[in-house]
Amino acid sequence: MSLRDFARMLLRRWYVLALAVIVAATGTILLVRDGGTYTSRTLVTFTQPGSAPISRYNGSETWGVITFATTVATLVNGGQTHTRYYSQIGAPLYGAGLREGSFVTVQDQGSQWVSVVESAVIEVQVVGRTEEWVRTRQQELLDEVIGIGASEQEQRGIPINQRIVATVEPLTKEIAYVEPNTRTKAQAAMALLAAALIVGSAAAWTLEHRHPRKRSTYQRSMPIAGSPVSAKEVANA
Q1: Cα–Cα distances in Å, from 30 out to 23, 123, 130, 192, 209?
Q2: Tens digits of residue pLDDT in 73-124
Q3: DSSP-assigned states of every residue in 135-146
Q4: CA–CA separation, 223 and 234 (whole Å)
Q5: For residue 135, what pLDDT is reported?
Q6: Tens digits of residue pLDDT in 169-187
Q7: What percent of the chain shows pLDDT beyond 70?
Q8: What's CA 70's distance to the chain center, in Å?
Q9: In whole angstroms, what is the distance from residue 5 CA to residue 86 CA?
Q10: CA neighbours within 13 Å on the CB side: how many for 75?
């Protein structure tokens, strides 16, 4: 099929392209109206008894404290241990496409292939549509982390002065509002339009080959040049 034939085919199946463009336009409108989201990423540091969180040798990098922090995060998540992929540095929840939700997990400096936990730091990530919801959910999870950490040690009969301490880093409780800028929205709209044209063209080509257009009666009755034509055929033509 030549480029001219392809263009003619698109003109014949214009309604397929139109449908694809309408879908893309609808997606663009929803994207623009979607707005931004509120997000927070709070850190809870676990340290050895009697150590200050800001101290260089606070014990947060020891294997025993890291294991305890991992256990607390697992209990908060209801026994789930596969949430570390949402704890990569620079990969917030809204970047994963979530608009409302939360995760509690040990901070992981590794990649999707290798898990590298170097310190007993739990991340409490929350994203939501409103600042009030994010703040309420954030405090609920922080209370749960602190409460589980204390109850687990109390059940084991560990004296208070020998218990691992969980400290919330105050500066990480800040709630931010994230919204795509105009340039990002324009790029997304162009990408949707390009995708619509590609998908629409492919659909039109498929429809053209599955349901080819039939020639008209006049075209079928036209005589071939150089062939004998009877008077009846001429009259019928």
Answers
A1: 11, 31, 18, 12, 34
A2: 999 988 766 554 444 445 566 666 677 888 888 887 766 666 777 888 999 9
A3: HHHHHHHHHHHH
A4: 9
A5: 94
A6: 988 999 988 776 667 667 7
A7: 72
A8: 25
A9: 49
A10: 15
Q: Which of 5-14, 75-84, 211-220 has the lowest mean pLDDT?
A: 211-220
User: What is the pTM for the complete model shown?
Assistant: 0.61
| Amino acid present at 77 | N
Task: Enter the tokens of residue 118.
Answer: 């170097």
Helices (H), 49-179: 63-76, 131-155
Q: What are the structure tokens assigned to 134, written together?
A: 């994010």
Name the token pair of 129: 């549509």
Residue with tokens 């409302």: 100
Q: Please list, residue by residue across 178-216, b when 16 or more beta carbons sit within 10 angstroms of its beta carbon and e when fewer do.
A: eeeeeeeeeeebeebbeebeebbbeebbeebeeeeeeee
Smallest CA-to-CA distance from 39 within 119, 129, 154 is with 129
